[in-house]
């Protein structure tokens, strides 16, 4: 870890020294695309980059820092400040039809260092392109379009981080394509990658918990069970109506054999997700929603607290209140926002009593955000959660204030 940090510090210093020797007129900011027909699956390249003249390499990234004061059932840990994440992008146009991009994320200071994306794209035709390396599995919309500066909320959605494994990426290969037709755009992508492991049920959460599989760092060099994970998505967008996406992710998660000896039957995990976003023209209200369903083949030796079915999602409403020069910023925007969330970690009934299993959480997050520029956001949230345990006892309640900043650089 110390060597990695030292190398990164050396790299940053080297870049700064190099930039100091370059004519400032050669440095140019490549903005993120503002195309009304851009899709969530385009987010990996729709970012602002800094480029030096006509060199093929561009640099970028974003940073998030937060403060919160939360209390749960009357108990609080007090004032908490957090360096949430620092993410670096490096993109390169190797040739006219070959490009490379990598995304490296540092979370909680340097507690976690992850390569979230590192792929080479070969462009053959609009409807047929090839991608290989570490790819972002396209399940839902948030997993692909997760950059902090794009959101009005300090926390990422519960369904995307605690039900689905947010920023879920694996090594693999796949194809993607897109077709434009007047006010419409149609797109698809499909990948075969390494996938889940048995940590989704053998974990410290004591529940079916897909994000636990991210602890397996070996997934970037080998498959846990030799079975590929299929992830596929189709999306359509109309310039006036909005975007609709449908995605699927499925594969075997358990080690069913070892050295030719059968250990268990193949047990699958399948996820289906739908996402939608639109803007109401008259009010400029932005609406963004995502919902996912999970099915897991749980061994009979596991108790009913491990859910075979899960579901959940979120919906965001963002309403611009003011758009005018503020404090010297020419295009500043003040927004009001609201997020509604729900996750059911164990959808079903107890076999013994027939009563509902109540392992679920509800959340409401009103927010005010100020954007001095489109690439920077200062946000103030109030979070209120109520969560029921598996037996449906009176819910645990959490509430409190959150403040944060996030910006591309």
UniProtKB/TrEMBL annotation:
It comes from the Bacteria. InterPro entries: Porin_dom_sf. This is Phosphate-selective porin O/P. It comes from Chitinophaga defluvii.
């Amino acid at each position: 870890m110390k060597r990695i940090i030292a190398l990164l510090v050396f790299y940053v210093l080297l870049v700064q020294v190099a930039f100091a020797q370059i004519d400032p007129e050669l440095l140019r900011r490549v903005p993120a695309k503002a195309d009304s027909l851009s899709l969530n699956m385009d987010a990996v390249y729709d970012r602002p980059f800094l480029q030096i003249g006509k060199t093929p390499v561009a640099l970028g990234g974003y940073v998030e820092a937060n403060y919160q004061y939360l209390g749960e059932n009357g108990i609080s840990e007090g004032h908490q400040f957090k360096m949430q994440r620092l993410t670096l992008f490096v993109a390169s146009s190797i040739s006219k039809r070959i490009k490379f991009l990598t995304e490296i994320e540092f979370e909680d200071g340097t507690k976690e260092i992850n390569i979230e994306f590192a792929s080479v794209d070969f462009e053959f035709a609009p409807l047929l392109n090839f991608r290989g390396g570490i790819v972002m599995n396209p399940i839902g919309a948030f997993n692909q379009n997760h950059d902090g500066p794009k959101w009005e909320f300090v926390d990422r959605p519960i369904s995307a981080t605690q039900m689905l494994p947010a920023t879920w990426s694996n090594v693999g290969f796949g194809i993607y394509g897109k077709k434009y037709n007047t006010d419409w755009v149609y797109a698809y992508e499909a990948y075969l990658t390494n996938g889940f492991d048995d940590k989704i049920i053998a974990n410290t959460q004591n529940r079916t918990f897909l994000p636990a599989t991210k602890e397996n760092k070996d997934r970037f060099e080998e498959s846990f069970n030799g079975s590929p994970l299929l992830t596929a998505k189709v999306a359509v967008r109309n310039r006036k109506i909005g975007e609709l996406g449908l995605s699927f992710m499925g594969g075997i998660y358990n080690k069913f054999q070892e050295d030719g000896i059968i250990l268990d039957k193949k047990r699958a995990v399948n996820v289906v997700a739908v996402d939608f976003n639109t803007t109401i023209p008259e009010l400029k209200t932005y609406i963004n929603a995502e919902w996912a369903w999970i099915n897991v083949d749980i061994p009979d030796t596991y108790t009913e607290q491990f859910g075979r079915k899960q579901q959940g999602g979120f919906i965001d409403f963002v309403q611009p209140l003011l758009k005018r020069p503020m404090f010297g910023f020419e295009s500043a925007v003040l927004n009001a926002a609201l997020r509604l969330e729900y996750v059911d970690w164990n959808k079903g009934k107890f076999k013994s009593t027939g009563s509902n299993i109540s392992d679920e959480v509800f959340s409401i997050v009103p927010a005010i955000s100020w954007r001095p520029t489109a690439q920077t956001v200062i946000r103030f949230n109030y979070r209120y959660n109520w969560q029921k345990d598996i037996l449906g006892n009176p819910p645990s309640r959490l509430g409190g204030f959150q403040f944060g900043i996030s910006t591309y650089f």
